[in-house]
């Protein structure tokens, strides 16, 4: 009788783990599309951000231009808004990817180190994280960008500096949670060196929560980059970026609504999709959250 | 209690020192000559030397740091290059509109989030719950400045219902406040929902139900106040997002506050004002977080008792 009940229980658990919420597929689609377009788009269509076409200025979406249709219309100097979005996606993807990579690797390493080592190492690392939080992240990014000047590299550096703390905290928490579990103790007793125990037994258990943080960070970093570029403190004026295109159309809302709103809509879809994707990922990777 | 207060105060002082030092490090240690950046490429060597002397950047770094700390204590960051008045004063003058906008947004988002969060817990996992969860996620991730632009376009340009920019009447608050509250509500609803689900299992809630208290009273008199205690701490942390939102919203709606002053000063290379605004905002951030911590200790004795041990 018990075996039957146990078997049924195990079956239910197994199904719970495999059951992928539909949300994750729906959210993964725009995320994938965005990455694909950002990588392939600029290879297929050419666009010169400095080139202006004054005869084609402020054309509404759908206007037939020489050889193509301006799906999102054109801006006040005749540049195709859709192509700006396509090329701007490259900046967003680059900044998002590199920032999350730097902040993620540095933050996770420091966090797991703090959790595993404990003691003074833990105190020093977490105190540094506290000081980092003394200034609101966005304020720090504005200040740094205003001093160093707008450039894609600077945006990546400032955003990575403001972002590592969350990875460190989550990594530390995850490491603390498994540090004293039986399988880790067994590995230690069997003679595993501290480095081996950490890399082989502790780190894999920390990956799931860190992956969730990485996904939602990706969306937040893209949002932060667009916000900085919107204020003129992100990508330089010579590089097309979403925030800059949106800022560009702000004074023309009455005559050309499309310049700000359409690229903004694309940005919103991408950031929200990353958010939903990260959220569903948490549900899949942490089955306990589903049961709640 | 006094030990708890003292600890909090010391911690806040430490954090303020950290924040002010970070500003110094960023502004002074970044390669490049601040005088050259402020005056632009057309400045003569004479002008550069004068400004360097005025800013004190011809002094050794340690001397600069000490002078800077002493000046920062009095919020003295030099005169604004553009406005001709002390930078600290210029910033404080622009503070009331920003505070008014921020406080209104915070209050409105609490008033909306609590009932929404309560509603979400009534059928956990149900359609309403999932819709609220999805919408809160959308609110958190949607770009603030784009929402502001769309609202402007629809309600001000299109329907001509509301004023577009400025801050001269209560109607001017409506669009900026809606824009600001969306991400705040997104975060708060999830907190309220999670906090309430935890509290609803507590024995005192069961006891209240067993006594035959109406469900509404159980929720709003017993469960919500206890759930709000952890929410209070998170409000302190949410302040960082609120500040970012305020800067963007002030730009979109031409709101005459500190955020717009900060961004304008950056493009005008008015560095004393940039430093003063960042310092004032960071200081308010730390002070409010300290108050929140103390409030947390007052509301929940376990916090301050747990710490003094």
Q: What is the secondary structure topology, with strand pairs?
A:
The complex is a heterodimer of chains A (about 290) and B (about 300).
Chain A: H1 2-18, H2 22-44, E1 63-65, E2 68-70, H3 81-117, H4 119-132, H5 137-148, H6 152-179, H7 182-189, H8 194-230, H9 242-248, H10 258-285, H11 287-291
Antiparallel strand pairs in A: 1-2
Helix pairs in contact in A: 2-3, 2-10, 3-4, 3-6, 3-8, 5-6, 6-8, 7-8, 8-9, 8-10, 9-10
Chain B: H1 2-29, H2 34-39, H3 45-55, H4 61-73, H5 87-93, H6 95-122, H7 127-141, H8 144-158, H9 171-199, H10 203-210, H11 215-252, H12 258-267, H13 271-299, H14 301-308
Helix pairs in contact in B: 1-4, 1-13, 5-13, 6-7, 6-9, 6-11, 7-9, 8-9, 8-11, 9-11, 10-11, 11-12, 11-13, 12-13, 13-14
Rg for CA atoms of chain B: 24 Å
Oligomer type: heterodimer
* CATH architecture label of chain B: Orthogonal Bundle
CATH architecture annotation of chain A = Orthogonal Bundle
Name the CATH superfamily assignment of chain A.
MetI-like
Q: Give me the CATH fold name of chain B.
A: MetI-like fold
Could you name the CATH topology of chain A? MetI-like fold
- Poorly predicted residue ranges of chain B: none
Class of secondary structure makeup of chain A: mainly alpha
Shape of chain A: elongated
State mean pLDDT of chain B (0 to 100 scale): 83
Task: Give a summary of the structure in a few sentences.
The complex is a heterodimer of chains A (292) and B (309). Chain A has helices spanning 2-18, 22-44, 81-117, 119-132, 137-148, 152-179, 182-189, 194-230, 242-248, 258-285, 287-291; strands at residues 63-65, 68-70.
Structural account:
- The complex is a heterodimer of chains A (292) and B (309).
- With 292 residues, chain A is mainly α.
- Chain A is 74% helix and 2% strand.
- Chain A contains eleven helices and two strands, in the order H-H-E-E-H-H-H-H-H-H-H-H-H.
- Chain A has helices at residues 2-18, 22-44, 81-117, 119-132, 137-148, 152-179, 182-189, 194-230, 242-248, 258-285, 287-291, and strands spanning 63-65, 68-70.
- Chain A has a two-stranded antiparallel ribbon with strand order 1-2.
- In chain A, a hairpin with a 2-residue loop joins strand 1 (63-65) and strand 2 (68-70).
- In chain A, helix 5 (137-148) packs antiparallel against helix 6 (152-179) and helix 8 (194-230) runs antiparallel to helix 10.
- Chain A is elongated and about 75 Å long.
- The two termini of chain A are 28 Å apart.
- The model of chain A is unreliable at 1-16 (pLDDT under 50).
- Chain B has one domain (87-308): MetI-like fold (Orthogonal Bundle).
- Chain B has helices at 2-29, 34-39, 45-55, 61-73, 87-93, 95-122, 127-141, 144-158, 171-199, 203-210, 215-252, 258-267, 271-299, 301-308.
- The mean pLDDT of chain B is 83.
- The interface between A and B is large, with 43 and 46 residues.
